[in-house]
Amino acid sequence: MNFVKGQDVFYTTLSGRSYRATVIERKIDFKKGLIKKSAIKEMTYHYLIEVHKVGIKEQILCTENQIKLLEKKQRAKKAA
Fold this sequence. Notes:
The protein has 80 residues and is mainly β. It has one domain (8-69). It is built from no helices and 5 strands. The chain has strands spanning 8-12, 18-26, 47-53, 56-62, 67-69. The protein has a 5-stranded antiparallel β-sheet with strand order 4-3-2-1-5, with no helix packed on it. The termini are far apart.
């Protein structure tokens, strides 16, 4: 699934915990010089996200399989 900038998602850590996050940049949108290629192996990340932990915001590079769409569930109204 492709995500877009500003989309709300869930980020799942290696330990299995999930956190609310927002997509900041996609790999295909990165501009020259934003990320040093020597520090990152080629094709090891797809998105730059901002994870919202208890009052802390942290930016993380992650792969597509580590994030899921944040579904906004709506309650169905009961028939009266």
